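ABC transporter ATP-binding protein: structure, please.
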Amino acid sequence: MNALPARDYPALEPVDSRETRPQPPVDLIIDQAGKTFETARGPMVALAPISLKVAKGSFVALIGPSGCGKSTLLRMAAGLEQPDNGAVLIRGKHPEQFRREGELGIAFQDAALLPWRSVFRNIAFPLQILGRSVKAHTDKIHELIELVGLKGHEDSLPGQLSGGMRQRVAIARSLVSDPSVLLLDEPFGALDQILRRTMNVELQRIWAARQTTTILVTHGIDEAVFLADEVVVMQAKPGRIAEIIKIPFARPRTPELFSHPHFHALCDRLMASLHGEGHTE
Ligand SMILES: Nc1ncnc2c1ncn2[C@@H]1O[C@H](COP(=O)(O)OP(=O)(O)OP(=O)(O)O)[C@@H](O)[C@H]1O
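Here you go.
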């Protein structure tokens, strides 16, 4: 592992230099999409109309206080929730269609593995749902098991695995259909800090190996800054996007980054944004 010395991480770039770069193609477009739920206490605006573009191959983190609509946004991107107005498109398609074609990988906080199925058969499950042959994908499933560091555990049942291992199975499962877009809702929320950091490094490795466009919902400021190219800061009542902060650190990012002063400066910046103190250039 060729860890970068901490001093090699670049300083924060001036905004102007980033804006002149050519723009990569966009995978996900959310255009003025909002969501109001009818509740016993009347209409509840989970998301005011919001707009967001996610570039192909990029890693975007969504962060914000509880109830600001992060999961609702992710569920709209997954086609599991319909916006009341506006549009959500992934590569020009409706998310539901995209999901049915196996182009969308989804892993949520509760790994929700089938307890009676082995690691191998849990990872294979989405293929069966999509009507694809598991036999034809045996090599691929073994590759994924290796990618998430679970070689040797193919036949284990979820109950025989640690929390972190179960999360890795869920991530492998979300990748088995070769999705072009990966949606992760607090996948490491239940893990302790040390395991979480290990999983952050692993997720970066998996993402870098496959360049799958990834959207991660997290409550962890350091997790967001470590992993993302862009952090979308949201605020509640009503749920909305407050600010989008670019994360300029070189990749691969190594655990040393967690203790770098520039890293802490960006975490502070994000914390201020979460508290509604907008950034002024
Ligand atoms: N199906 C639903 N019916 C009614 N209200 C809902 C529904 N789903 C979400 N909400 C409400 O919408 C708001 C946004 O919820 P959402 O789960 O998207 O927030 P969140 O930012 O992901 O929260 P957390 O960080 O706590 O997971 C919350 O007030 C929630 O109670």
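Notes: Residues 1-7, 11-18 have pLDDT under 50 and may be disordered.
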